[in-house]
Amino acid sequence: MSKFKDTGKKEIPPISTASLPDIVFMLLFFFMVSTTMREVTYMVDITLPEATELSKLEKKSLVSYIYVGEPLKQYQSTFGVAPRIQLNDQFANVNDIQDYVIAEREARDEAERPMMITSLKVDENTKMGIVSDIKQELRKSAALHINYSSRQKVER
User: Which chain regions cross the lipid bilayer (predicted)?
Assistant: First the structure.
């Protein structure tokens, strides 16, 4: 005969949820810190060309982007299907590039201005005529440090 008797079913104590808000806030803080927001809304379709010899930019805060490509479907009724230039979040003409470069230069510190890079993100199917026009405007505005964005060529 046993010394201890089982008198009935014992209730399982409820799970403590006291630390649940701490866990939720830790996860929220983690995702807020690790997520980066897109700086520009793309209005042009860009498929970057492939390249074999690439180098990574060190300071992306010094880079100003000029996007060139065919407008997205929702903008084609207004702007057509010919390649267009996008500066920040709006379409622009070649003549607007000088003002854009000057505004970007003024937004930087005095010490960072000589290190400013203009990166061209051009669709691989875009004709070189528009790229040459952009380069001429960049020369006129003394933006001589130009970078062409591309993607790494995959060996098969």
Answer: 12-33
